[in-house]
Specification:
It contains seven helices and no strands. It is mostly helical. It starts with 10 loop residues before the first helix and ends with a helix.
């Protein structure tokens, strides 16, 4: 027995569909669903996803280790205060854009924090002759932010 499914289409698409009354749209949708299922069934993404998660975790941990061992010991409190404004996602999310528009939101704040950490690590490493990877992945920078915020928050506690 088949199953009836309701799909939502934007109004402009529905209007365009009306100009083709001869088309059996149910059949078009059925074929698209079958094709999608066939493609997804042919590839087992499980092992690929697991491998990528492991790589991401390795990069995240490397970011933490680099921060704890190489960078944090060389930072002054003034450096911490400056870096904090560039890599704290919560602070960045509350900031307004350059033209006074609404705060940038969580996804843009996360991107800004990651990019900010990447720039600061490169600059600081070059200035202090610290060896860091050439390609600082997002996961690496997120690990570095995690370590930085850990030390910053523990230092700020009274």
């Amino acid at each position: 027995m088949g199953k009836n499914v309701t799909i939502y289409l934007p109004e402009d698409v529905a209007e365009k569909m009306e100009s083709f009354p001869e088309v059996n749209w149910s059949e078009v949708c059925r074929r698209a669903v079958l094709e999608y299922i066939q493609i997804r069934s042919q590839v087992d993404l499980g092992p690929i996803i697991e491998r990528l998660k492991k790589e991401r975790n390795v990069d995240f941990k490397e970011g933490q280790i680099t921060m704890y061992k190489e960078i944090i010991p060389k930072l002054s409190w003034k450096d911490f205060e400056l870096w904090h404004t560039r890599v704290d996602k919560n602070l960045i999310e509350q900031q307004h854009g350059p033209f006074g528009e609404e705060p940038i939101g969580p996804l843009a704040a996360e991107r800004a924090a990651t990019d900010g950490m990447r720039r600061w690590i490169r600059h600081f490493a070059k200035e202090n002759k610290i060896q860091v990877q050439e390609d600082l992945s997002d996961a690496f920078c997120e690990g570095a932010i995690d370590a930085f915020m850990d030390v910053y928050n523990r230092t700020k506690r009274k």
